[in-house]
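Exercise: predict the fold of this chain.
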Amino acid sequence: MTSQSSAGASATGGAGVGSSSRPRSSSRSSAGSAGSAAIRSGARSCRPCGSSILACCGEGGAHGRPEAGARLYHHLVPYFICPNCRERSIDHDRQEGLTRQAVACHRCGFGFLFELLDDYYPAPGTGFVVCDQESRILASGRGVFELTGYREDELMGREVMDSLGLTGYEDGRNPAQLALEWGVRRLGERLELRTRAGKQKPVTADFFPAYDDDGGLLVAITPRS
């Protein structure tokens, strides 16, 4: 009797374990199905903005391939470029580490970076010139001397269009003034530059207004054949 009772108890216990394990498996499957359905329906949230992945990042979420011309980073992450060495970067808070100083270039050590509205890919021969709110030159980067023949100390404090002899635009359509006055980019301006030796050189110039409180202008000058 004892052995039969033990066997019965074992059988009952085994049946109990088996029956309890099956519902757990079923619940896990249900949870997995619900999770998959939630992902498909866009229930996941985008960490930077908190909205739905599908609503924020498009079909397929952040794991999908970006379309041609689409931003590779979230729209709140600013793009930067070094006016000296042309190194491109991003920075989430515009500050250097835990300090309140403006972010600097980690490649060449230049003191500040210029914030751009969108990512920008300069050509190998492009030279950058940084100007203040009055389009006076504050600094010139690598490639400017090779392109113009002017050293940085010869350009500082001078108006960018006059000092570099940039001509070829229509009357009243000075691209530097338009960029500063209206806060818009002027890209692909086909101009002529006068070098230090007095030679006229065809160039393509891009004008980027600054978006911080200090204002200013970044001019990218690329030789054109």
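Check your answer against the key: The domain at 79-223 is CATH 3.30.450.20 (Beta-Lactamase).
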